[in-house]
Design the sequence.
């Protein structure tokens, strides 16, 4: 079997030698941090205008992650492109001829790209948190407070898992365009819209992004959000399940279909 | 008729085409040859008015392309097989072209039939293979039933049947009195298709002559002579007789003799006189490829060539290709006249290198060599980098 | 050595490759021929384990491809010139391949040098011309210094120098005892490169034979003779039972004889010959003859064989021939 370390090294070279890695990850970080900061500043200046319920359940930690709704899309793009460009460029045939063991190939790629996404995700969540808190003024919290560290680390995990989930989906669909065409509207529109529709929102609660984002809340049901039948770690577990399913699906497609 | 006069194209500091003048006449297939980067595509693009010449001009039937009234009905071109909107069907692609030029829709179905795409006419061209794309491109070129046709690498991606078909199609078009101008890198294909050749190198005209003239001007014809393999003495005897008579004799790998400088009947008479029996006496003409290689040697705008040729090539005196040395019996090995002989084993980068140790040692067939400073860009420069 | 045994691939009801069994032996260049749609590409992809066979096996030096730990060191393949990531430089594209098979990075520079891409090694490969992409693909095939090499249409996009170079490269690699398997549509090119041929049509093996035998079996070969004593020559040939065809210009064409035999015959009879040469059909002719029944027409319409489909104002009617 091809040595996993060799394949990991190869995948690391692949990732660091394409410019899309830099621009997708950089936008994930910058967009999240900038948008979160802007919203935190907005919260501070308009705090008095918020409804009483919202004021009562105001979650300064969660507020400093509010930019992730946009920033996660860059993570989706990163995850999709890491896999999808193998197919769109035809590189997949060269890659598989070099590493015919499909599992070694796929999981090395996921490990490297997923690891990188996690690192960038963590950097993003910590940066967002500190900048957000600085801008929230008297409404701020700090890392030492209950559950705050869990939420901040959880924010990083969330970003990384979104990317890994996208990689699995792209491996199943074997196309960047198709994957982006499904994932971006899903995370940006469908999931958000459904979570506001009665009945549908019962299902939407179990979507990967809805479930996974619970880990970032310090105040349960923060800022008037819906009650969930699971806790923060339960939510992350549901998200992990989604990720596992997408990876398994991706692996089965890669293993059984002609390259 | 296509006529270029003093055609010149510069991209910044690089001169792609310089002072090119030639005519492409109707009624024959004219081949357009040149190494990569020699300016062939640029010239074709200028003929079609896609690029504007820096100086000089090129006309089709007396008019620059852009001033041709209803150009699509006078000139058909296949430049890039994939220059088609992939989402459209083959038929609607052609239909849109036909409508632009005011060609009746019925003609679309005709050309689809001609190129054999009628069965897939309704399919989106995105799923087409290179060969099918090529056929679609040829259909587009034929659409306006034009008198002047340009084809850039027409057999690309076609299978042997397709290649034969394109070859016959071009000959047929020429025989109807049309002007057919074809560029290709496939010398063997060109030799079978073209009647006339225009060869350029580094943007300048190297040759404008018939294929036959081109081959005889750029290579030496020779005779292959074999004596009975059972009697080695006869071979020696014939060699010395032929050498005395002023012929040049070289040895071929299978033991036959390669004789230049003597006509066949004379060889026959000399053999007869020396009482040598012949097992073979056959005339050989060099291939178009050999002739082309000889001609373009100096003009190849190519990083790999000089170095490689230095290894592969026999010491050739200019003007006396291959046979410049005074003949001396012990018979010389045939130099790379055929150019197909592999370089001696053992002199290559892999030869002695044990598995896993990658000794760098470019062999005789290594094409590479850094581009010489001062030379223009490497030939395969990205087309879009211009 | 590559061994195929009963290799079969079906897509739904369509059989692309049908019980294909053959061996590709080391030391010679083996050409792989067949019309479009004959299943050449599918076969080559199955050899590299990119496509899963419906049944049958391919063995590389006795092993399944997936059992090869570092396959690039056994077998190098050029399947598709553009099978590289365009956003990556030529060097980096090769580097990640090299790393995955633990090939030293220094080898990347060597193969780039070998194919003449050193000057553009740091350029993104998406700007490469077809010819440069082809060279990059060839470099990737040579990367692991493998004993087996597969090339699918290697001369595509190369200019005459490049064509000449790759031809000599393949022959030299074969002469070192490597296994070279090359597919091409260019018969004239194949005739110059390959020693052995494997021909398939509609997924089935049509021929597995040496180049010389293939041409001989699938076309007419004859000996052309010219002599100032033509009358006597013809009489001598007739007397010895040879079939002679007069071809004009004072040439005689003799079927079913070797030049050796005819040379001796002429010498015995004191005849002067001005030409005595074996005439062989081209590989293209032989190939056309052999595959005439096995060509798949699905996408090519009916006029493929009608030669030039009589272009002209009346094309529509004349193109339906054959």
Sequence:
């Amino acid at each position: 079997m091809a040595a996993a370390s060799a394949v990991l090294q190869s995948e690391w070279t692949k990732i660091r030698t394409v410019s899309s890695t830099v621009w997708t990850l950089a936008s994930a970080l910058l967009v999240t941090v900038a948008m979160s900061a802007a919203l935190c500043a907005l919260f501070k200046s308009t705090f008095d205008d918020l409804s009483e319920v919202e004021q009562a359940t105001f979650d300064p930690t969660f507020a400093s992650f509010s930019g992730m709704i946009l920033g996660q899309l860059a993570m989706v793009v990163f995850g999709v492109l890491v896999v999808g460009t193998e197919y769109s460029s035809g590189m997949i045939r060269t890659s598989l001829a070099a590493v015919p063991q499909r599992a070694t190939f796929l999981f090395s790629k996921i490990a490297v790209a997923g690891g990188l996404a996690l690192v960038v995700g963590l950097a993003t969540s910590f940066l967002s948190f500190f900048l957000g808190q600085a801008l929230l003024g008297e409404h701020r919290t700090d890392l030492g407070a209950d559950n705050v560290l869990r939420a901040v680390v959880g924010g990083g995990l969330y970003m990384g898992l979104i990317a890994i989930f996208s990689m699995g989906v792209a491996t199943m669909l074997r196309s960047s365009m198709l994957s982006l065409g499904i994932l971006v509207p899903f995370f940006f529109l469908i999931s958000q819209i459904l979570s506001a529709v009665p009945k549908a929102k019962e299902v939407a609660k179990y979507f990967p992004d809805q479930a996974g984002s619970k880990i970032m809340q310090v105040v349960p049901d923060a800022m008037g959000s819906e009650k969930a039948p699971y806790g923060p770690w339960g939510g992350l577990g549901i998200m992990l399940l989604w990720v596992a399913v997408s990876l398994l699906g991706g692996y089965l497609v890669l293993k059984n279909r002609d390259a | 008729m296509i006529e270029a006069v003093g055609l010149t194209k510069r991209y910044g500091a690089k001169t792609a085409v310089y002072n090119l003048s030639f005519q492409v006449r109707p009624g024959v297939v004219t081949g357009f040859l040149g190494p990569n980067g020699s300016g062939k595509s640029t010239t074709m693009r200028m003929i079609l008015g896609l690029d504007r010449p820096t100086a000089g001009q090129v006309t089709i039937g007396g008019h620059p392309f852009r001033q041709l009234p209803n150009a699509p009905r006078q000139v058909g071109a296949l430049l890039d097989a994939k220059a088609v909107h992939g989402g459209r069907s083959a038929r609607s692609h052609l239909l849109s072209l036909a409508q632009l030029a005011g060609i009746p829709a019925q003609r679309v179905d005709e050309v689809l039939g001609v190129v054999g795409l009628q069965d897939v006419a309704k399919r989106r061209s995105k799923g087409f293979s290179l060969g099918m794309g090529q056929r679609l491109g040829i259909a587009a070129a034929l659409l306006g039933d034009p008198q002047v046709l340009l084809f850039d690498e027409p057999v690309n991606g076609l299978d042997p049947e397709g290649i034969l078909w394109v070859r016959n199609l071009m000959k047929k078009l020429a025989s109807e009195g049309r002007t057919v101008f074809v560029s290709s890198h496939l010398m063997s294909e060109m030799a079978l298709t073209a009647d006339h050749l225009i060869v350029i190198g580094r943007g300048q005209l190297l040759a404008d002559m018939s294929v036959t003239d081109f081959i005889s001007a750029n290579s030496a014809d020779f005779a292959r002579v074999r004596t009975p393999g059972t009697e080695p003495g006869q071979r020696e005897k014939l060699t010395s007789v032929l050498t005395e008579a002023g012929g040049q004799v070289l040895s071929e790998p299978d033991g036959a003799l390669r004789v230049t400088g003597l006509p066949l009947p004379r060889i026959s008479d000399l053999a007869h006189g020396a009482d040598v029996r012949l097992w073979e006496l056959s005339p050989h003409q060099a291939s178009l490829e050999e002739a082309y290689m000889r001609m373009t040697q100096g003009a190849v705008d190519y990083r790999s060539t000089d170095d490689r040729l230095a290894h592969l090539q026999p010491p050739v005196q200019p003007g006396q290709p291959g046979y410049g040395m005074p003949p001396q019996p012990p018979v010389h090995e045939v130099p790379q006249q055929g150019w197909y002989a592999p370089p001696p084993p053992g002199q290559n980068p892999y030869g002695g290198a044990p598995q896993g140790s990658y000794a760098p040692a470019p062999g005789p067939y290594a094409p590479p060599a850094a581009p010489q400073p001062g030379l223009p860009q490497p030939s395969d420069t990205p087309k879009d980098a211009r | 050595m590559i061994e195929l045994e009963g290799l079969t691939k079906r897509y739904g009801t369509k059989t692309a490759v049908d019980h294909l069994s053959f061996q590709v032996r080391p030391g010679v260049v083996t050409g792989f021929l067949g019309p479009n749609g004959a299943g050449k590409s599918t076969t080559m992809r199955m050899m590299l384990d990119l496509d899963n066979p419906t049944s049958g096996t391919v063995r590389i030096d006795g092993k399944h491809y997936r059992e090869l730990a570092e396959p690039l060191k056994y077998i190098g393949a050029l399947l598709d010139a553009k099978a590289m990531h365009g956003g990556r430089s030529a060097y980096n594209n090769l580097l990640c391949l090299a790393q995955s098979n633990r090939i030293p990075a220094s080898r990347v520079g060597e193969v780039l040098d070998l194919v003449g891409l050193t000057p553009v090694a740091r350029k993104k490969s998406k700007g490469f011309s077809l010819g440069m992409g082809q060279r990059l693909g060839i470099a990737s095939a040579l990367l692991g210094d493998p004993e087996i090499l597969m090339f699918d249409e290697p001369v595509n996009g190369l200019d005459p120098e490049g064509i000449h170079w790759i031809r000599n490269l393949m022959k030299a690699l074969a002469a070192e005892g490597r296994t070279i398997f090359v597919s091409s549509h260019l018969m004239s090119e194949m005739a110059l490169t390959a020693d052995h041929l494997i021909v398939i049509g509609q997924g089935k093996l049509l021929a597995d034979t040496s180049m010389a035998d293939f041409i001989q079996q699938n076309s007419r070969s004859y000996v052309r003779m010219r002599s100032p004593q033509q009358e006597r020559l013809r009489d001598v040939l007739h007397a010895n039972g040879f079939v002679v065809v007069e071809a004009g210009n004072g040439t005689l064409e003799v079927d079913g004889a070797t030049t050796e035999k005819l040379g001796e015959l002429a010498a015995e009879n004191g005849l002067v010959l001005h030409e005595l040469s074996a005439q062989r059909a081209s590989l293209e002719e032989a190939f056309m003859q052999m595959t005439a029944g096995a060509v798949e027409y699905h996408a090519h319409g009916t006029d493929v064989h009608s030669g030039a489909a009589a272009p002209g104002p009346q094309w529509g009617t004349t193109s339906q021939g054959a």
Chain C has eleven helices and 13 strands. Residues 2-216 of chain C form a domain with the Rossmann fold fold (CATH 3.40.50.300).
